[in-house]
Each structure stands twice: as structure tokens, then as C-alpha cells.
Design goal:
The complex is a heterodimer of chains A (112) and B (113). By secondary structure, chain A is mainly β. Chain A contains no helices and twelve strands. In chain A, the strands form three sheets. In chain A, strands 2, 5, 6, 10, 11 and 12 form a six-stranded mixed sheet that branches. In chain A, strands 3-9-8-7 form a four-stranded antiparallel sheet, with no helix packed on it. Chain A has a two-stranded antiparallel ribbon with strand order 1-4. The chains are: A mainly beta (112), B mainly beta (113). At the A-B interface, strand 5, strand 6, strand 10 and strand 11 of A face strand 5, strand 9 and strand 10 of B.
Chain lengths: 112, 113
């Protein structure tokens, strides 16, 4: 069984600033992946970034990067140069064999 | 490129009525298919997943069922809706094999009156 915990229900950041969203997980699997998804008010789920658990190098996608601490089972998302369009719910997920377990999400508000 | 279509976008149904939500995927073959429910302000709960035609795995006991009559078609059904079936339903697909990301449809908002 897998569990994902996002301890920050809501966060706020000013435009152009940097924000970090926390995620911890628990899994008994050795080979698993981690994902961050974004759900804007339109409700569409959009993949933001993925991390292979066997890779030590942190994944990066433009302004989005992760801090993956495997021993601590931590997978935080850093958003740099925040933009108004980043306002959304962010979900952390972990999975194996194509089944994902999602956290309860963090609502991020980007303000002027 | 691959696309996923889910309909209807919004549905209002009375308690006790039947339900049929449809999801189709284009541009790929033999995808894994998923149905999730998202309650208001909550994360996603996996309801069903399918690794092939006629192969359905249920994750939680409930009032709903799923079917996969064709390779790229996934249907969520109920014979009699309950108030607790209200929510936002999302269909998703992924490539078979390995730990691949899932790609989501636009969702269906289901309200039970």
C-alpha cells in the first residue's frame, strides 16, 4: 500500500517569487515514480513534473523543480518566478505498475 | 498525438436514476484506462482501472461499475445513483508498461438531486 501526505492545504506566493510545496510519501515498493500534477480552476489535471525513484538527480522542467529525498521519502515541488497562471491545486502522487496514489492537494494562490 | 475525450462535462441526475459516463482515447493502442472520483476539496480516489478489453479492476466497493467494450473506450455506469455518488469524475490513460504518467480528460461534474 502507498500513502501520500501533503501537509499544506493552502499556500500563497507573490508573483515572481519562489514557493515550495511539500509532499511526503510511504511505499514498500523499490521501483516507483513520483509525480506532481496541477489542477487549475478549469479542473483539468495537468502533469507538471515526474521523478524516477532510482534517479538521484532532481527533475527540472523550466520553472518547476523537485527536491527528492529518497531516504526521507520526501518529494517537494519548487516553483520559481511564480506567475498568475500557476494558481491551481497541486497534487503529489506516487505509483507503481501504472497505479497512482494521490495526496489531498495544496491550493496555491499567486498574488500580485 | 494522443487525446482523451470525456463526456458529458456536466450532468444532473435524480437519486435512483441510471448513469453512463463515457471516455475514449485516440492516438494510442492498448492503453491502461482509469476512472477517478474527486470529492469537493479532496484528492483523487481511484475507482477502476483496466489493462485491456474486458479487464476491469475495482479499487473500492461501491455503487458504480466500469466496462471496457473496446480497446480505447472506458465506461462508468450505475444502475441506481445515490446522493453520495455526487462528485467530479475523471478518466485517464497511460502507456502500458513501466511507471508512466497518466493523462487526464477534462472531467464530468455529476450532481445528484
Amino acid at each position: 500500500a502507498q500513502t501520500v501526505t501533503q501537509s499544506q492545504p493552502e499556500m500563497s506566493v507573490q508573483e515572481a517569487e519562489t514557493v515550495t510545496l511539500s509532499c511526503t510519501y510511504d511505499t514498500s515498493e523499490n521501483n516507483y515514480y513520483l509525480f506532481w500534477y496541477k489542477q487549475p480552476p478549469s479542473r483539468q489535471m495537468i502533469l507538471v513534473i515526474r521523478q524516477e525513484a532510482y534517479k538521484q538527480q532532481n527533475a527540472t522542467e523550466n520553472r518547476f523543480s523537485v527536491n527528492f529525498q529518497k531516504a526521507a521519502k520526501s518529494f517537494s515541488l519548487k516553483i520559481s518566478d511564480s506567475q498568475l497562471g500557476d494558481t491551481a491545486m497541486y497534487f503529489c502522487a506516487t505509483g507503481t505498475a501504472s497505479k497512482l496514489t494521490f495526496g489531498t492537494g495544496t491550493r496555491l494562490q499567486v498574488t500580485l | 498525438s494522443q487525446t482523451i475525450h470525456q463526456w458529458p462535462a456536466t450532468l444532473v441526475q435524480p437519486v435512483g436514476s441510471p448513469l453512463s459516463l463515457e471516455c475514449t482515447v485516440e492516438g494510442t493502442s492498448n492503453p491502461n484506462l482509469y476512472w477517478y472520483r474527486q470529492a469537493a476539496g479532496r484528492g483523487l480516489q481511484l475507482l477502476f482501472y483496466s489493462v485491456g478489453i474486458g479487464q476491469i479492476s475495482s479499487e473500492v466497493p461501491q455503487n458504480l461499475s466500469a466496462s471496457r467494450p473496446q480497446d480505447r473506450q472506458f465506461i462508468l455506469s450505475s444502475k441506481k445513483l445515490l446522493l453520495s455518488d455526487s462528485g467530479f469524475y475523471l478518466c485517464a490513460w497511460s502507456v502500458v508498461g513501466g511507471n508512466q504518467p497518466q493523462h487526464f480528460g477534462d472531467g464530468t461534474r455529476l450532481s445528484i438531486l
